[in-house]
């Protein structure tokens, strides 16, 4: 194996891999001046003394895009209005941290509730609820169509509050129960309702002023705005045009 001038046995034949000395007979690095990034810089020359080829010119910026869901001009990876992900083609962007402060879930002022670790919400497209909405013959009922495919989802309920709504980057709203994914329920507000933890381990439902209201357990009359309604295991919360959220308490390990 090669031996450097300092007597070290090296596996490399250009520079000693022990002390870094130039091995006997190895060519020294040469440098050359090239134009790069609008000005001259010094960089190692290619073997044989030829200057390294400059990198290919940057590609021209892609033509302006618009969001396929809401036609808003693209300003980054995610749509500022609906959260559409241009990189993956998904209509739902990753949830962003909520605003800092004592009301932010998971903050030091609002620790998570160990007693509610077994709670979860089952989100489903409810045909019976949809039929009741259509029967009311609202102004938009003619344009509403029940989704042909809408898989059920389970979302754990943690923290002192769980917001129900649709993600909005421009409004800094990232609800814990996000209903913005396809098929998107057009009747759900960005901040539609909130579940607040009760000391006894249950929940209280509050509608802060949604556009289309919130009903419970098949009722036809929306709950009053900003009036707490106790809910618990098995209760159904109806929002939008077809979405039903069923609360459930999981006993034992999930």
Cα distance spanning the termini: 61 Å
Rounded mean pLDDT is 77
Oligomer: single chain
Count the E strands. Answer: 12
How much helix is in the residues? under 10%
Q: Largest sheet, if any?
A: 5 strands, antiparallel
Proportion of β residues? 15-25%
Residue windows where pLDDT falls under 50 for at least 5 positions: 47-52, 56-63, 93-116
| String of helices and strands | EEEHEEEEEEEEE
What general outline do the C-alpha atoms trace?
A: elongated
The largest sheet has its strands arranged as 4-3-12-11-9
Instruction: Give the C-alpha Rg.
Output: 30 Å
Number of helices: 1
The chain-level structural class is mainly beta
Describe the structure.
The protein has 254 residues and is mainly β. The strands form three sheets. Strands 4-3-12-11-9 form a five-stranded antiparallel beta sheet. A five-stranded mixed beta sheet has the order 6-5-7-8-10, with no helix packed on it. It is elongated, with a radius of gyration of 30 Å. About 15% of the residues have low confidence.
Attribute tags:
1 helix, mainly beta, 5-stranded antiparallel β-sheet, 5-stranded mixed β-sheet, 254 residues, elongated
